[in-house]
Amino acid sequence: MENYIKIEFPSKSCNEAFARAAAGAFAAQLDITVEELADIKTSVSEAVTNAIIHGYSGMRGIVEMRCKISGQTVEIVVSDKGCGIADVPLAMQPLYSDSKDDERSGMGFTVMQSFMDTLKVESEVGVGTTVTMTKKVGASFEN
Ligand SMILES: Nc1ncnc2c1ncn2[C@@H]1O[C@H](COP(=O)(O)OP(=O)(O)O)[C@@H](O)[C@H]1O
Ligand SMILES: [Mg+2]
Prior knowledge:
Blueprint: E1 2-10, H1 14-27, H2 34-55, E2 62-70, E3 73-80, H3 88-91, H4 108-115, E4 118-124, E5 128-136
Antiparallel strand pairs: 1-2, 2-3, 3-5, 4-5
Residues 46, 49-50, 108 line the site of magnesium ion (MG).
């Protein structure tokens, strides 16, 4: 199967739940387990929250989410035109967070990495950040 969606929304935190649900509804057209669907939705939440909270940090901007299906693989791309990340390998380390907020555990990238098959983070300071993740789903339906 080949299919895609592309949506964009302002960086309001209420849109995080929408993005999560939209990605889940899109991926649900595949043979997919409840657990795989939950993994994808959680990863989307983390990426979109990062774009809103870190990328735009309180300022208004546009977050774009693209979801693509090729065969049994789901690819999700979340991008912002926010502040960017100076040191991507450092930012991706477990427990690393630049914010002191108790709600930020520094585990967002680690969650994306463990729940998805691949994670790529491209970022430039002052230009923005693009997070691309893929997951092959439905292996348990094969026989
Ligand atoms: N879209 C983004 N724009 C700018 N900085 C980001 C973005 N996503 C992540 N970061 C940086 O990477 C760090 C780690 O992100 P993450 O693992 O999700 O932890 P947390 O969100 O809890 O801080 C953030 O604290 C922030 O410094
Ligand atoms: Mg985060």
